[in-house]
Amino acid sequence: MTRLTAERTRIGLIGLGVISKFYVAAFDRLPGLDLAAVCDLRPDALKPFQGVAKCYTRHAELLADAAVDAVVVNVPNDAHATVCADALAAGVAVCVEKPLATRVEHGRALAGLARREDVTLFTSFHRRYNSAVLRLLDEVSAAKAPVRSLTVRYLERIEDHAGGDRWYLDAERCGGGCVADNGPNAFDLVRLFLGDVEPTKVDVVRDALGTDRQAVVDLRSTRGVTARVELDWSYDGEVKDVSVELADGTLLFADMLAGHPEFKGSLWHEYVGVLTDFDARLRAGHDASRDGLAALELVDTVYRAEGAVR
C-alpha cells in the first residue's frame, strides 16, 4: 500500500446522513485532518458547509475535482459498493461506514480492487474505539487467566436510531435487518478480543415482513474460545456491552454507553478514534480491508446458516 506523505490529510465526506455529524465534529479535534469537501444528493444538506468546504451533489464530481487524499463513505448501505469502487479506482483511500457492502461478493471485489490499485480500504467499526471497550481489552490482556467465553449484546429499537435515514428500515437497501446492520459492529468486537471466529449456532427471529429483528449467534474462535452475539432491533431501550469470563471464573465487563447519557453520546469520542486509526493506516500504507470483509463474511454465513435467500 502506498504511504501518504503529505503533512495534512485532505478528506472528503460523501453522505451527510445521521452519522455525519460525528465525523464532522471529529475533524475539529484532529488538527492533522482537513474536511476539504462534502457531498450529498440534497442541496439543503450542503448549506451549512458553504464557504467551509467544497460542496458537491455527485460523488464522481468530488473525486474528479476536490483533490482529496481520502473519502469517508457515509451513504446508504446499498450504495457502499459503487461509491467505494469509484473512489478506489480513482486512487483515493476509503473509510466506509459498516458494512463494507450489502453482499459478500461485492465486499470481496472491493478488497481485491484496493489491493490491485494499492489504495487503503478501511471499514469504520466505531465501537472498537469505545473507551470502556479499550479498558476491557487492557484488562483481558493483563489477566493471568485466558478467556473462557465472551458475550456481546447490541440491543436497540431501530426506529429510534434511524432518524431521518429511513432506508435502515428497508431490508433491501440496508442489506437485511439486525444481523446485517448491527451484526458487523458486534462481530468486529468479538474478533477484536478473540481473533478469527466462525458461527456454530444461529437463531434468527423475523417479523411479518421477513426482516430479521432478533438474533443470537454462537461462535467459536480458532483457539476454541466460545462467544455469543445477541442482537435485537425491537428492544425497549438501548444496551451495548461486552462481557468476558476468564478461565479462573473472573468476570469482566464493559458498558459502552456508561458515562454517555446523551443519546448516541458515546459516538463523539468513538469517531475521533475511527479517523485517527484511518489516518494512521493510510500513512503507514497498510492493507486495512481484512476487518471489514471478515465482518461481512460472518453476516453472510449467519444468513446462509439460517437458510435466508439474499
Q: Could you explain the architecture of this structure?
A:
- This protein is an alpha/beta fold.
- The chain has twelve helices and twelve strands.
- The protein has helices spanning 20-28, 43-46, 59-65, 80-89, 104-117, 131-142, 158-162, 171-174, 178-181, 183-194, 267-284, 290-306; strands at 9-14, 33-39, 54-56, 70-73, 93-97, 121-124, 147-157, 197-206, 212-221, 226-232, 234-246, 251-255.
Q: Strands, helices and their partners?
A:
Blueprint lengths: L8 E6 L5 H9 L4 E7 L3 H4 L7 E3 L2 H7 L4 E4 L6 H10 L3 E5 L6 H14 L3 E4 L6 H12 L4 E11 H5 L8 H4 L3 H4 L1 H12 L2 E10 L5 E10 L4 E7 L1 E13 L4 E5 L11 H18 L5 H17 L4
Parallel strand pairs: 1-2, 1-4, 2-3, 4-5, 5-6, 7-10
Antiparallel strand pairs: 7-11, 8-9, 9-10, 11-12
Helix pairs in contact: 1-11, 4-5, 5-12, 10-12
